[in-house]
């Protein structure tokens, strides 16, 4: 008999769509019942085994009761090593035997967490209890040479307190995997300083100095066992909780970037943030420290990992809920026009809509890079018409400021997103043309003088061709973003949310326009070379050097080429000569 679950059920850590595919397990308790589920979709996008615990919660004051559901994640009892991992660890243990070292080697952090969750991980960090990483790497190299093997890629990454890297790291390559080596340590932070005093520590001290309990687990290579020295790392994995080993406010003030890491891991695994952690993350002291003590590069790296991850919307929503949105995506003091009070909500609404559209259209339609930049383009969509003054006093898009100053990300990302934003108005203008069976005159958009001599019947292909040649491989991304502001620019959070995104209509519009562009034969049109080159243009115009006139004719000839897809170079050149003669006579 299937259990009846009423609307009073509270689902944590994330919303569950409870289907009738629940099977009651045996339980002697009447207040706690456990159900296993066969078709549960985790946020990571993979089906994972687990079970749902239903607890009956009674309210004495109201005389009522309800059920509370808690998801428990399946965590492995022991770590199963791959063949490569066995070979790596064997080499390290043989190094200890070769030199008769009384050293304990532990794998720390994310590798342990991921292996316990049944996930592959190739990021191996070795913590050493009685020597520096560089000293141990030298001994591994010496041992490998004695066996006829060659040590690869040995290097030392120096400490860099300015980038919050407080410890020297040794690195080497074993069996095509990079392995990092550091010593176990404890940290002491002095008042007003973000640079800790480092010293050798015990494994327990090292575990408690880490950011989260789920990242504080060790795998002891000597004993082949998992060590949970905080006493709650494995339990927090099972219950899906993001908790700090020490009081969260002190942990965040030591390194405020840990706030963003907590959000990222919570989103990535579908875990919930501890309530005390959320209070600490949102307090003024921590937000101020995040803005003042952490480099923009490190913040930008965390944000990019979230955007590139499996739950970008959840991550950005959490950043906003913790009042960190404007700390992370800081704007210059003066922008024009002024940003509305609820602008960050609209940013996340657009991000949510684009994420859902990508899933419904099909992730395979977009490359990984296209998906990543489409989410940035959606997140910053409300800023597309906002400008500020750059360091030279020139007017510049505020989107460029966010990428280059607030996040310190590469210029190419900023340029691509801004190019997508600039293309939106032209895409909106094309929608009616591409979706209508009737001859429709293009709206008043500055398409350029190259369309003057193009016959009306060919203007659609020419317009779309120029647009695609501008945005190139990102034309589908620009099309996707354009569907979210069609038929009119929606800059009100309420307007956009009231429409509940209308995803079905936007998908239909996307596919209609995509099919129309494909039928026009414009796929990869940006790779098509001009039929007539600059020297030939200069010859017809009887010019000795290039200039604005040559560039103008290059655009006109490209328009002719788009209007005549089967035309030859000779025909294109003849058209240019005739057109040039006609204009010369008129002038």
From TrEMBL:
Pfam families: PolyA_pol. It comes from the Eukaryota. Residues 105-242 form the Poly A polymerase head domain. Keywords: RNA-binding, Transferase. InterPro entries: NT_sf, PolA_pol_head_dom. Belongs to the tRNA nucleotidyltransferase/poly(A) polymerase family. PANTHER family: CCA TRNA NUCLEOTIDYLTRANSFERASE, MITOCHONDRIAL, TRNA-NUCLEOTIDYLTRANSFERASE. This is Poly A polymerase head domain-containing protein. It comes from Hevea brasiliensis (Para rubber tree).
């Amino acid at each position: 008999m299937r259990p009846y679950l009423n609307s009073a059920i509270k689902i944590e850590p994330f919303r569950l769509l409870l289907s009738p595919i629940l099977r009651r397990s045996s339980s002697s308790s009447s207040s706690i019942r456990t159900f296993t589920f066969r078709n549960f979709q985790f946020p990571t996008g993979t089906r994972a085994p687990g079970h749902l615990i239903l607890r009956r919660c009674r309210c004495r004051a109201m005389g009522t009761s309800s059920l509370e559901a808690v998801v428990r994640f399946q965590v492995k009892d022991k770590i199963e090593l791959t063949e490569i991992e066995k070979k790596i660890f064997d080499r390290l243990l043989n190094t200890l035997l070769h030199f008769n070292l009384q050293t304990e080697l532990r794998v720390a952090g994310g590798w342990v967490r991921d292996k316990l969750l049944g996930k592959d991980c190739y990021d191996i960090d070795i913590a050493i209890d009685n020597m520096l990483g560089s000293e141990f790497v030298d001994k591994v190299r010496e041992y490998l040479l004695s066996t006829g093997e060659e040590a690869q890629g040995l290097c030392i990454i120096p400490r860099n307190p300015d980038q919050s890297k407080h410890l020297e790291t040794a690195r080497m390559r074993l069996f095509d995997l990079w392995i990092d080596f550091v010593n176990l340590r404890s940290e002491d932070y002095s008042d007003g300083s973000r640079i800790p005093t480092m010293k050798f520590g015990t494994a327990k001290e090292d575990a408690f100095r880490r950011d989260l309990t789920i990242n504080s687990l060790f795998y002891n290579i000597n004993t082949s066992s998992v060590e949970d020295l905080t006493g709650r790392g494995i339990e927090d994995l099972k219950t899906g909780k993001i908790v700090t080993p020490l009081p969260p406010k002190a942990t965040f003030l030591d390194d405020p970037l840990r706030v963003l890491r907590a959000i990222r891991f919570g989103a990535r695994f579908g875990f919930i943030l501890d309530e005390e952690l959320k209070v600490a993350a949102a307090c003024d002291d921590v937000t101020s420290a995040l803005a003042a003590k952490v480099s923009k590069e490190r913040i930008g790296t965390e944000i990019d990992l979230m955007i590139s991850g499996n739950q970008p919307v959840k991550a950005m929503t959490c950043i906003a809920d913790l009042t960190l949105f404007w700390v992370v995506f800081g704007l210059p003091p003066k922008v024009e026009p002024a940003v509305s009070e609820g602008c960050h909500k609209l940013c996340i609404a657009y991000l949510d809509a684009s994420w859902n559209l990508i899933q419904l259209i099909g992730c395979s339609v977009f490359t990984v890079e296209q998906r990543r930049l489409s989410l940035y383009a959606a997140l910053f969509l409300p800023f597309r018409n906002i400008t500020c003054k750059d360091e030279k006093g020139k007017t510049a898009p505020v989107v460029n400021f966010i990428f280059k100053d607030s996040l310190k990300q590469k210029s190419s990302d900023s340029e691509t997103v801004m190019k997508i934003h600039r293309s939106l108005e032209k895409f909106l203008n094309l929608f009616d043309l591409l979706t209508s069976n009737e001859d429709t005159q293009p709206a008043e958009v500055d398409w350029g003088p190259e369309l003057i001599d193009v016959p009306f019947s060919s203007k659609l292909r020419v317009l779309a061709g120029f647009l695609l040649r501008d945005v190139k491989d990102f034309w589908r991304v620009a099309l996707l973003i354009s569907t979210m502001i069609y038929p009119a620019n929606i800059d009100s959070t309420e307007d956009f949310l009231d429409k509940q995104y209308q995803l079905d209509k936007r998908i239909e519009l996307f596919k209609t326009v995509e099919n129309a562009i494909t039928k026009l034969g414009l796929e990869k049109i940006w790779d098509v070379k001009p039929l007539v080159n600059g020297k030939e243009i200069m010859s017809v115009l009887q010019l000795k050097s290039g200039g604005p006139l040559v560039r103008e004719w290059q655009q006109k000839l490209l328009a002719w080429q788009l209007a005549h897809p089967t035309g030859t170079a000779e025909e294109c050149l003849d058209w240019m000569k005739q057109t040039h003669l006609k204009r010369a006579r008129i002038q």
